[in-house]
Specification:
168 residues, mainly alpha, globular
Length: 168
């Protein structure tokens, strides 16, 4: 199978992970586009093996670079405009889905990125650790902390939330 065909098979996975990281469809598409462009330019650096971890690692590093430069741009724009920038929230049809997404988004970034790769993309622990550039033991600790935080948040939310009534 040709290199380009292998990359094309990974595009839906890259798009899903990029959207989970960025939380904005246009930014996610730009991130995937940059990742694909870089992969094609740097194809000589890919060692024959599994392409997916190589692409995900590239996407993750591009995301980190964009996040850092975007936060600097926001600080400059906020200082110039004298006000904080805001964006409108996307509405989801189900309250439980919204709450779960909110809990995941509130996780520290290192835990969130690890959890999304393992749960959303189904990558192995070893692949995920390689993508994030950490040891497998560190990954397991991050996942355990993320899952425990999500459990605690769900318990607190279920106690605070008023019971929903079904309307016929």
């Amino acid at each position: 199978m040709h290199f380009e065909q292998q990359i094309c098979e990974q595009i839906p996975h890259l798009q899903r992970y990029a959207l989970a990281l960025c939380r904005h469809p246009a930014e996610a598409e730009d991130l995937v586009q940059d990742c694909l462009e870089r992969a094609l330019r740097k194809r000589h650096l890919w060692r024959w093996g599994r392409l997916r971890p190589w692409l995900f690692r590239m996407l993750y590093h591009l995301y980190l670079n964009r996040r850092d430069s975007a936060s600097q741009r926001r600080e400059i724009l906020s200082a110039e405009a004298g006000e904080e920038l805001t964006t409108s929230a996307n509405q989801q049809p189900h309250a439980e889905c919204l709450r779960a997404l909110e809990h995941i988004q509130n996780l520290p970034e290192d835990q969130r990125t690890a959890l999304l790769l393992v749960v959303l993309e189904g990558t192995s622990y070893r692949e995920t650790a390689g993508i994030l550039g950490i040891q497998v033991g560190t990954l397991r600790s991050r996942l355990a902390r993320a899952r425990e935080t999500l459990r605690r948040q769900e318990q607190v939310a279920s106690k605070e939330a008023p019971p929903l009534r079904r309307v016929k």
